[in-house]
Structure formats: structure tokens, C-alpha cells
């Protein structure tokens, strides 16, 4: 079908839904790579910088996806993703054969499987492609993209994926990208909570936390959380690279998926409890390094 | 005093107590750097390779330290360290003015302060210098050494420290090295428990854990635990770089020191409970990555 075959391998018609911190950087890369992007997001103001760069506006996910070769989404909460794809003005009701869906958000693995089944039933296809790397990774196109889907679907998604990320690994069938992302988020949560608990101890123990980082940043205690987020904590910078509410969502997905598998994840339970307490304390829109405030303000 | 002034800045008479995984590598570096080392360790068999390299044997900590410019220790449990320094055949009873003590082990900060006070009272001095970097760091002399003590004592210790480590940071007065090490161990425990919980989830979720590492090893989830210890877990290699019993000891020190400061460390509490359960399961002499077995064998 003409509307689903690219005019050239270099230029794709892309429908995109969502313009958060990560999504905005990602759409920017696609525009600069010469793709056309039709964009929908709940808050139009967030889209303006991308419209100024050449994206066109769509009033709904359905409109963004009409005629697109590839329909991408990067939206926040499960209810929103559900609405984007399965809502009355969503992507699925008007999905055409040959179209390809790519969900960059972090959704339950069961959702990814359901979306892939629904797409295949319409002669289309779907890939789950959650990302890691934070705001920096999105800005520099160095994201790690964890991909689930059929070989054919993943091959078709590659021109988009390779524009946005550096480490792109096909992990298995639909849902496998999401399950890999769960692994990633368990690590992120443990490393970040550990970093904040450790920095808090350093501070209360009368140490110079900056000098402590010189000691612990390069050895067996090293992590991305220590190297990237700890300096933000020391500057009192709790702005989001990745927001607390989204980590809470991801950890709930982790717990729920683990429960389906009959597994206990005690560290996930603790991290979730701490981050939920952080939301309760009014810090849900801060960056994940904000869990330091739970210790500081106790 | 002649027995405490080096013949040349390059060659020191060093007394050394302890020959565990880390200590053995460290003594090897000192011997190769041209220092003379008089060695005592509880199990003489562990000292044999170092005696073959030129170290001389001492029957007690007191004998190892007699005439030494610098007396170093790297032994395991608090009761052993207590005995090494304050026991009847320990270092302190016969400590001479001008001698310098360097404790490379991880001991309570309060012990480091008590040892420094006792040394100073005899005209000697003491430095707490716990290390991080594991077996690899000790072998390659790339350890991070976290140093507490007076400026003068730390300056005198530098020829020894710089032979053994790469990142050497003076953190503050006596005990500050130990408190920095607590920070380090909070991070190590959180990162390692997180790595094992995440790998276990990956395995039970039907993913290929090796391929998952390709996705999560280089981004926001990255850590030394993921990069160095996770591959060991996937090979079924639970041999110690750093043994579980020592991490349990260190986390108990962390909890106890935090309690003195009136602080709660919930992540430390969870890590300690998991690692204590691992000891109860008979895995106390395995490497810290062995906490994976608690999940696998549940």
C-alpha cells in the first residue's frame, strides 16, 4: 500500500504521540534525520518547539497515525497508553494493514502482547521498544532501546530505532522489550535509592560528600546513579531527568509482572514503598534523585 | 629513632598482619616496590606464597611490628582487628614513638578513633585506610583508598598507599576513612542486591540474561556490579572477590554507626537481612554475587 511504503528508505512518514522530556528530544532527532512527523500530545504547548522545527499537528492519536508508515508513542501512564491505542480516537480503530506501531513508553508486558496481537489481527505489526538513558541519552541519541516483537517487525522499525539510540537489542517476542525494561528499572531504582541513602549517611556523618564521591565514584561502588545523579543531589538539583511518578509506575509494573510469574522482589517492594512515600510528600514531579529528600527532611 | 626512619624514601620496613584475598595482593605490590615486609597471619599456609617472594615470618602482630616504620593490617572481623592491635601479643602494647599504623580493613569508625587516640598517646600515629575495588583492584593496584587521620600521619602513609591504590583521598580526621567506606558499602550492597534481583527476574521472565546485560549494562542502570559481577552470576561463578561474611560485617558496622548518629537506613536493613539469610543458607564464604542463590533456590 502506498501510504505504508516509504518514498525512500531515508524519509518516513511518522506519527508520534507524546512530547514529554524524552519524547521531545526523540522527535527532534527524527526531524533532523529528514523524516516527516505528525505529532499529537495532550498539552499542545509542549508540542510547539517541535512544530516550529517542522512537525505538523494532529488533533488525536488517530489523526497522527493516518497515512503514517510508522506510528510511535512515548506517553506516561498505563491509562494514557491504553487511550492512545485503544481509545475512540486512538490508533487501533483505524489502523491500516502494513502500518507499524512502536511503543517507546514503559508499559506492562501484557499490554505489549495485547497490542501486538491486535495489530497483527489487522495486518499491521507492533514493536515494544522502551528506552533507557534518561534525558541525556535522549538528547544525545545514545539511548539503550530494548526491543520486543517479531523479527520482521523489528527489522522494519530499525531505521527509526537507529536514529534515536545507540544500543538497540532485540530481546525476543512482543513484551520482551518491556520485560527487559523492568530489569533496567529494578537496577535504576536500587542504584538510585542506594545512592541517596549513602549520600545522606555521608552528610550526617560529617563527611564532605563531594570528596566522598571522589573516593566511591570509580570503584566497586560505581554506578550511573553515582556518576550522573549524585552530583545533582549535591547541587540541590532535583529537577527531573526521569520523574518520580514514572518510576513508581514502572516499579508497579515490575511488581505486578513478577506476581504473574509467582516471584517475590523484596528490593522492588522497598524501592516502591520509598518512592510512593516521596509522591505522598509532594515530590512526584521531581527527578528520581529526589528520594534524597525523604532522608533529608525526615 | 633509627628504627622508625627509613634508610631511603624508597625502602620501608613494613609490618603486615593478615593475608586474605586482598591483603596478599597488596603485600605482593609492596615487596615488588622494594619494601621489606614482616608478615603475620593466623593461618601460616596463606603466608607461604608471600614468604617465597621475600617476606619474613612473624609469630605475632607484636613481632611483625617490632622495628617497623609502618605497621599495616588487613584482617577480617572486628574481634580479630581488636586482637591484632589491643591483644596481649598485639601491636599497641609494644608500640614505639614514631611508628605509624595503617588499618586497611573495614572497622567501626569508633574503633579507628580509639586506635588513633591510643597511638598518639604513645607518640605514634594512626591512619584508617579501608579500600574498595575488590580482588581485581588489589591485584592491579587500582584500589580506591579512603583515608582518615591527621594531615601529618596521612602524609607519612602516602608512600605505602600510593603503591597499593590509584584513587587515594584524605577524607578527614581519624574514622573518616571508615565512614567513607560505609558509604561505599551501602552502594555496593544496594547495587549488588539490585543486580541479583533483576537478573533473577530476567531469568524467570524467559529472557536471555546475557542479551539483557547488553541492553542494561551501558545506560542509566549501569554499575560495577552489573559490569563485573553479573557476568560471574551468569557463568554460575560464585567464588569470592569479596566474601559475603565481610559484607555482613560491614553492613552491621553501617547500621551501628548510623544508629549512633540517630539515622535510619532502610535499604541497609534490607540488604543486611538478605545477606544474613545468605549466611544462614550456608553461603557465607561465597562472593557477594552469591545473593543470587537466595532467589534461585527459594
Structure description:
2 copies of one chain form a homodimer. With 298 residues, chain A is α/β, with parallel strands linked by helices. The first copy, chain A, has 2 domains: 9-172, 3-Layer(aba) Sandwich (Rossmann fold); 179-296, Orthogonal Bundle (N-(1-d-carboxylethyl)-l-norvaline Dehydrogenase, domain 2). Chain A is 52% helix and 13% strand. Chain A has 13 helices and 9 strands. Chain A has a 6-stranded parallel β-sheet with strand order 3-2-1-4-5-6, with helices on both faces. A 3-stranded mixed β-sheet of chain A has the order 7-8-9. In chain A, helix 1 packs parallel to helix 6, helix 8 (176-204) crosses helix 10 (224-234) and helix 8 (176-204) packs across helix 12 (266-280). Mean pLDDT of chain A is 94; it is low at 1-8. Chains A and B meet through strand 8, strand 9, helix 8, helix 9 and helix 10 of A and strand 8, strand 9, helix 8, helix 9 and helix 10 of B.
Q: What is the end-to-end distance of chain A? A: 61 Å
Biggest interface, which chains? A-B, 69 and 68 residues
Largest sheet of chain A: 6 strands, parallel
Regarding CATH, which class of the largest domain in chain A? Alpha Beta
- β content of chain A, as a range? 5-15%
Cα-atom radius of gyration of chain A? 20 Å
CATH arch. level architecture of the largest domain in chain A? 3-Layer(aba) Sandwich
Can you identify the CATH superfamily of the largest domain in chain A? NAD(P)-binding Rossmann-like Domain
Amino acid at each position: 500500500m502506498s501510504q505504508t511504503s516509504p518514498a525512500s528508505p531515508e524519509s518516513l512518514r511518522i506519527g508520534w504521540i507524546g512530547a514529554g522530556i524524552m519524547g521531545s528530544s526523540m522527535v527532534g532527532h527524527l526531524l533532523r534525520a529528514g523524516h516527516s512527523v505528525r505529532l499529537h500530545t495532550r498539552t499542545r504547548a509542549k508540542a510547539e518547539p517541535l512544530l516550529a522545527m517542522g512537525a505538523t499537528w494532529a488533533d488525536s492519536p488517530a489523526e497522527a497515525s493516518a497515512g503514517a508508515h510508522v506510528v510511535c508513542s512515548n506517553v506516561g501512564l498505563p491509562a494514557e497508553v491504553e487511550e492512545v491505542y485503544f481509545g475512540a480516537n486512538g490508533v487501533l480503530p483505524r489502523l491500516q494493514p502494513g502500518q507499524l506501531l512502536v511503543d517507546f513508553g514503559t508499559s506492562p508486558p501484557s499490554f505489549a502482547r495485547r497490542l501486538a496481537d491486535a495489530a497483527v489481527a489487522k495486518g499491521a505489526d507492533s514493536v515494544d521498544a522502551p528506552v533507557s538513558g534518561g534525558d541525556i541519552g535522549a538528547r544525545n541519541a545514545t539511548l539503550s532501546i530494548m526491543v520486543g516483537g517479531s523479527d520482521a517487525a523489528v527489522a522494519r522499525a530499525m531505521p527509526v530505532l537507529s536514529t534515536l539510540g545507540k544500543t538497540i537489542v532485540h530481546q525476543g517476542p512482543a513484551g520482551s522489550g518491556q520485560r527487559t525494561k523492568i530489569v533496567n528499572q529494578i537496577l535504576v531504582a536500587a542504584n538510585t535509592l542506594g545512592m541517596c541513602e549513602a549520600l545522606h549517611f555521608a552528610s550526617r556523618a560529617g563527611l564532605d560528600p563531594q570528596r566522598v564521591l571522589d573516593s566511591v565514584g570509580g570503584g566497586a561502588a560505581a554506578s550511573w546513579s553515582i556518576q550522573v545523579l549524585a552530583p545533582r543531589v549535591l547541587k540541590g538539583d532535583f529537577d527531573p531527568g526521569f520523574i518520580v511518578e514514572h518510576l513508581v509506575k514502572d516499579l508497579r509494573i515490575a511488581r505486578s509482572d513478577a506476581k504473574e510469574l509467582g516471584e517475590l522482589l523484596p528490593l522492588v517492594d522497598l524501592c516502591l514503598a520509598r518512592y510512593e512515600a516521596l509522591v505522598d510528600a509532594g515530590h512526584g514531579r521531581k527527578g528520581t534523585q529526589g528520594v534524597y529528600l525523604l532522608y533529608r527532611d525526615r
